[in-house]
Design a protein that fits this description.
- With 667 residues, the protein is of the alpha+beta class.
- The chain is built from 18 helices and 31 strands.
- Helix content is 30%, strand content 30%.
- Strands 11-10-16-7-8-15-12-13 form an 8-stranded antiparallel beta sheet.
- Strand 24 and strand 25 form a beta hairpin.
- The two termini are 55 Å apart.
């Protein structure tokens, strides 16, 4: 029992004295063990709990802090390296939230984040911290770690002057660690390297710091070693942030100018915008103007996130705050837009540009009567996720809907899950596809479209092969970090997916970094799952856009008794056409119900049938009433039946249920 008490004190305070153990012995039988008073005193001395401050006190602190004592930074890392846990410890250390053992990942407030255990939305918190008897304002942004949410990372970095690069001491540098590091370096941000999870038995901090030196040229002596779970070394992280990251380069004397870097919808206040103030001051009641839309809005309220909303009257340059100004939708609230005071000329605040979508899918309501409700839900979600693009689409089988663009398959899954959980929508999601580029040959089509190149994401809109000069498909540059034991299987997977190896670098004796150019269409469905399966979960993968390249594509059509069904056609690579065709006809054979006529399911490329399945017709036993007689009577009845079936095939329409289209088209 005493060993357990000593262990608790040792990991909570970093020290243990026999006097303190004796005090615990005396009170053990009458009271529960509480956190050490020394810890509480340390927190009280170094933090100012913003959640408990009155509005006037918070306003005074905001006004008193000069630009030199403001730090804006993000936490970037690979998925599951402990970003949200470190953010929790930072909030607890500064008094922004209370210590609650049952409360984890405070900034991950979406239901989908709680269920999946990952961060999908960047969250901001403004916290106060006392360093060397001076009060500092720290604006912290916790970012996602998955490659599909890299837009959240790049958007957050636009409002930062530095980053905490967090690396898992067990798994080491992984693919998204490399990608996020280069994003920070492109913006010339100061990097504070931190090694997390040093308390785990199989942690290898010495080897991981060597890997960071090899890949990022980071001096191993500058890498902080912490345990976000236990809180070990977290105080040093804040001190290093204040010492290393520079204050924001802003001007409080010039006219007001700010960057919108996040937004979401509130059913009572409309669109709420998170802004980073670059110049001047903003007060409640001021009239602002958007540089992109030129529309003007009155400021209804100003608040800061601590992490709960705290109302203030003024925002000054260098600070991050939330404004409500009667914006209604995503067409008015544009991420990356610059706002300024009414009737004042200004320049753009930043160079942030949203990433282009890579994966496209159709979204349709279950019933057309729910079309308006689903449209409203999508508009509100797009306000919160600027990486999603929306275009109106229609399908004879599914009705009116939209074609949405996403950054990846997980991004699509999370978006649709949030539609269901947060807005009560019931969307039908079609199978994901990518955008292909074609060069036209037909002069009439060139004149009709006004150009000789077209981007096609819907196979039904693909022109005839005779009208097309060249086909191009999108590529990605994939980064794979894996233990050397699995290199053979992973190379085989990449070759199977038509990948071309660009480089291979040994990080250390047991791990290797490989770069492959892969077709985007080959990785959007199950590539990541196969990679994890082959490597027993140890390999990591990230990718970035690598442009288009010349390829050979065909349009795969599905015919039912010789009649094409446009809703089921798709664009595939010529080498994959036969395999995809066989899979589709097998699936349709199981889904289409038997009918009075025989149904021939054919998968065709042009006029060539490359796969076929047949659904036999219902057959009535017309000879059941015969009880004898000549065989010619039996043959006569069978002949009449066959002639009737033949006539029915000529005139009958094959009835394909609506549910069948949904089952085939959805993922």
């Amino acid at each position: 029992m005493y060993k357990r008490i000593r262990w608790t004190l040792l990991h909570a305070t970093g020290q243990c004295t026999w006097n303190r153990l004796a005090a615990y012995r005396r009170t053990l039988c009458t009271t529960l063990i509480r956190p050490s008073s020394d810890i509480e005193a340390t927190i009280a001395a170094k933090s100012t709990p913003s959640s408990s401050l009155s509005r006037d006190a918070l306003e005074r602190q905001f006004k008193q802090i000069p630009v030199e004592r403001i730090r804006n930074f993000s936490i970037i890392a690979h998925v599951d390296h402990g970003k949200s846990t470190l953010a929790d410890r930072l909030l607890e250390l500064t008094g922004a939230i209370s210590r609650n053992p049952g409360q984890h990942q405070v900034l991950d407030n979406l239901q989908v984040e709680r269920e999946r255990g990952i961060t999908v939305k960047a969250q901001t918190a403004s916290i106060f911290y006392k360093h060397q008897n001076e009060l500092y304002l720290l604006n912290l942004i916790d970012t996602p770690g998955h490659v599909d949410f890299s837009n959240e990372v790049s958007r957050s970095l636009a409002a930062c002057d530095g980053v905490i690069l967090l690396v898992d001491a067990c798994h080491g540098v992984q693919a998204q660690t490399v990608a996020n590091y280069h994003l920070a370096k492109q913006r010339e941000l100061t990097v504070v390297p931190v090694l997390n999870k040093i308390d785990i038995k199989h942690a290898n901090p010495e080897q991981v710091t060597k890997d960071m030196e090899l890949l990022f040229s980071i001096d191993p002596t500058t890498v902080l070693r912490v345990s976000a779970k236990l809180g070990t070394g977290v105080d040093e992280v804040l001190q290093r942030v204040i010492e290393r990251i520079p204050p924001p380069r802003v001007d409080r004397e010039s006219a007001f100018r700010a960057l919108i870097f996040d937004s979401w919808f509130d059913k009572y206040r409309g669109a709420l915008n998170l802004i980073y103030v670059l110049n001047g001051h903003l007060k409640q009641g001021d009239d602002i103007q958007s540089l992109a839309t030129q529309k003007m809005y009155p400021i209804k309220s100003i608040s800061v996130l601590c992490p709960a909303e705290c109302q203030v009257d003024t925002l000054s340059a260098g600070q991050v705050g939330l404004i409500a100004c009667n914006m209604r939708n995503s067409k008015e609230s544009i991420i990356g837009d610059t706002i300024h005071l009414k009737h004042q000329s200004t320049s753009s605040a930043g160079s942030y540009k949203p990433q282009q979508p890579l994966v496209f899918a159709g979204v349709f309501p279950v019933d057309q009567s729910k079309h308006v409700a689903l449209r409203s839900a999508i508009d509100k979600m797009v306000l919160n996720d600027s990486a999603v693009t929306v275009k109106v689409d229609s399908s004879p089988a599914l009705g009116q809907g939209w074609r949405l663009g996403f950054l990846g398959l997980l991004h699509m899954e999370v978006f649709c899950q949030r539609l269901e959980q947060e807005h009560g929508a019931e969307p039908i999601i079609t199978a994901p596809s990518v955008t292909y580029r074609i060069v036209l040959r037909n002069p009439k089509l060139i004149k009709q479209h006004g150009r000789d190149t077209l981007d096609i994401s819907n196979a039904a809109l693909l022109p005839e092969p005779a009208s097309i000069e060249e086909y191009y498909e999108p590529l990605v540059m994939g980064t794979i970090i894996t233990p050397t034991d699995y290199v053979g299987q992973i190379i085989g997977l990449c070759v199977e997916r038509r990948g071309l190896q660009q480089s291979s670098v040994n990080i250390d004796e047991s791990r290797i970094l490989m770069k492959y150019v892969l077709p985007l269409s080959e990785i959007i469905l199950d590539f990541h799952d196969r990679l994890k399966s082959l490597s027993s979960g140890y390999a990591s993968f990230s990718y970035e856009d690598h442009g288009y390249h010349l390829t050979q594509l065909v349009r795969l059509d599905i015919h039912l008794n010789g009649r094409p069904v446009e809703e089921l056609c798709r664009i595939v690579h010529v080498s994959k056409a036969t395999g995809v065709a066989r899979h589709m006809v097998y699936k349709l054979k199981d889904l289409i119900p038997r009918q009075m006529v025989q149904i021939a399911i054919q998968a065709c490329v042009g006029s060539k049938v490359i796969a076929r399945e047949t659904i036999k017709a219902y057959r009535k036993d017309v000879t059941a009433k015969l009880y004898g007689g000549d065989v010619t009577r039996r043959m006569k009845l069978l002949k009449q039946q066959s002639e009737g079936k033949k006539k029915m095939r000529l005139f009958a329409n094959i009835r394909v249920p609506h549910e069948t289209f949904i089952d085939v088209l959805k993922r």
